[in-house]
Amino acid sequence: MISIIVGSKGNGKTKKLITMVDEAVKSSLGNIVVIEKKPNLGTNITTKARLVNTDEYDIKSVNGFYGFLAGVCAGNYDVTHIFVDATLRIIGRDNDDLLMFLKRVDGLSKESNADFIFTISEDKENLPAEIFEICKPVD
Fold it and tell me: 94 is in which domain, residue-wise?
């Protein structure tokens, strides 16, 4: 399953993501992974979740990031949740790329049985409607 936390910059997406991470850590029997573009969440994320900074892995494209996520799933079958903060800063702001990426992640989610949760800094009305057919918006 893919969930997205959508909204303009500064409306509390990251705070909501942190709350969801805390809830997942309490209920999951597997591993929780939190991915960010730059090291910002360190003191806010429990040490029971694995925090990964994409800048350390030189990820520069939407395909590179998809491969990274697939590697996380392949490397550990116990991953139950993958949280991604600042998705558009990692993959770029192209809506076609975002849609293609989310379609691919949907398949990965089904294969790996991991839930993916992304923050997307954009107003809902500026995103393709098809995204909301693939992803469940988080209120």
Answer: 2-137
CATH code, domain carrying 125 = 3.40.50.300
- For 44, phi then psi, to 5°, come to -95, -15
* Contacts of residue 92, Cβ cutoff 8 Å, sequence gap at least 6: 61, 62
Tokens 């360190």 correspond to 42
Own/partner pairs, 75-79, CB within 8 angstroms, 24+ separation: 76/31, 77/112, 78/30, 78/31, 79/30, 79/31, 79/32, 79/33, 79/112, 79/114
Alpha helices for the chain (secondary structure H): 13-27, 62-75, 87-91, 95-112, 131-134
Domain count, the chain: 1
Instruction: Please give the single-letter amino acid code of residue 13.
Output: K
Q: Report the amino acid identity of residue 1.
A: M
Note the pTM of the prediction, 2 decimals: 0.95
Taking only the tens place, the pLDDT of each residue in 58-79 is 998 999 999 999 999 999 889 9
Placement of tokens 């988080």 in the chain: 138
Task: Please name every residue paired with 115 in a beta bridge, in sequence order, or none if there are none.
Answer: 81
> What per-residue confidence (pLDDT) applies to 79?
97
